[in-house]
């Protein structure tokens, strides 16, 4: 299935999700791996409870919609000086709770992308070996600060999203809050329309709430199509964020 664009309501961006193809006889179901990548650096410490509460809300609210939850396998990755896979391929219909995020350290984007580059191909291979048709993974990236490993993080990110090097390369939807530079968030995202920057940088708590609201609405919208219909990645923009476009 090729990537395409279709008409959408104002303020809503839609892209088709490219399928990792399998023959129909092999397919046990359809799964979409989703990764939340959350900044765990020192500056996020005042908002740690809000981050964990937001993740728990996603688990409960999407888990209460079995048709949508059945299509998602949900992972949580935290990053600071190192990156850690906190929760892995969780079936949101289960009673499994997410391991909590823990803050402390620098803001090394490269560690997050390095772990994703190792984990995503293995996850996709595992799910396909279990007979599932696997849709291109999506990464929802959240940070409140500029990378402390500039410029080294950028080549790591570029290798992750290069579909020649990484056939299961993810779509990355990036959200910048607090003091983060909008151009940095644009460089993280895989499309200009996937780069969102808070218009109220001092209101970090409110921006985190909007991030989780956008995440939930995007997951529900992207999993609402019947199994025999085209499957699309639908990104529902957060309120009080702007789309960070580049200069040509």
UniProtKB/TrEMBL annotation:
Pfam families: VWA. InterPro entries: VWF_A, vWFA_dom_sf. Coiled coil: none annotated. Residues 33-215 form the VWFA domain. This is Uncharacterized conserved protein YegL, contains vWA domain of TerY type. The lineage of its organism: Bacteria, Bacillati, Actinomycetota, Actinomycetes, Cryptosporangiales.
């Amino acid at each position: 299935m090729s990537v395409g664009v279709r008409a959408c309501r104002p303020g809503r961006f839609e892209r088709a999700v490219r399928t990792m193809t399998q023959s129909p006889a092999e397919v046990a179901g359809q799964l979409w791996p989703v990764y939340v990548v959350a900044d765990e650096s020192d500056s996020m410490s005042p908002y740690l409870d809000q981050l964990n509460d937001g993740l728990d809300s996603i688990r409960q609210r999407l888990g209460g919609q079995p048709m949508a939850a059945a299509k998602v396998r949900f992972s949580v990755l935290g990053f600071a000086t190192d990156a850690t896979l906190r929760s892995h391929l969780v079936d949101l219909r289960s009673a499994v709770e997410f391991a909590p995020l823990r803050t402390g350290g620098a803001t090394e984007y490269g560690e997050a992308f390095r772990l994703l580059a190792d984990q995503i191909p293995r996850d996709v291979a595992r799910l396909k070996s279990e007979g599932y048709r696997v849709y291109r993974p999506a990464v929802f990236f959240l940070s409140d600060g500029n990378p402390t490993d500039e410029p080294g993080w950028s080549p790591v990110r570029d290798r992750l999203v290069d579909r020649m090097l990484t056939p299961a390369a993810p779509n990355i939807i990036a959200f910048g809050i607090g003091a983060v530079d909008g151009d940095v968030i644009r460089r993280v995202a895989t499309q200009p329309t996937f780069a969102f920057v808070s218009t109220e940088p001092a209101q970090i708590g409110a921006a985190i709430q909007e991030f989780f609201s956008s995440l939930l609405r995007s997951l529900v919208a992207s999993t609402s199509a019947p199994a025999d219909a085209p499957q699309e990645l639908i990104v529902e923009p957060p309120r009080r964020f702007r789309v960070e476009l580049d200069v040509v």
